[in-house]
Specification:
mainly alpha; about 0% strand; globular
Amino acid sequence: MSPRPASGRCGRAAGRRAGWLAVSAFVLLAVLTLWVTRTPGHLLPTDASLHSWSVAHRPAPAAASARAVTDTGTGVIPYAALLTVGMYVGRTAHRRCGVALALMLCLGAGQALRYAAMSLVARQRPPVGDWAAHASGWSFPSGHTTTAAMTAALVIAALSLGSRRAPRIAVVLIGSWGVAVGLTRVYLGVHWFTDVLAGWLFAIGWVCLVVWAYLRWAPSSVRREP
């Protein structure tokens, strides 16, 4: 019996890493959620200090710039980004449409799960008087943060596993954008830092779970081994 090719072993190893990352992120998210919900007033010391600093160091130009960044983390922009990368990495027109649709479905499912978690925790936002941007709904995990981080992670995963790669600088910029959107939510006073941290953990866990499932079950004819 002939040995399996090295690419197959590499794919299984990448799948195991993604699976462990997903488990680790969700465990940390569970610990953070318990910590927040069991703390009186649902407010941790780091949350209060970072919120106070943001409110005290927020000149109008900086706030306007933060709003411009934060607005890219919701609405049509994340879906347009996934549609674009799906069209980029696919080998054929049929494959491009399939990848784009799969990426957008993964984002939509992640958003739905995040919303369910937010409704269960039902954490209050910072005081309205400290807001420098519009916000609605409960606070934990942050919706803008989760959506932007999931979008960035899905784009990077698609570029890593697809038939066409992007320059490393592009990957760094995409990841930096995903982080920046979350930080603007704290800076604009509409979220506590642990809301943002929870959003990052949720996004990492969800996208790594998707990558694990893809590497485990997708036929080799539709994927490129990492």
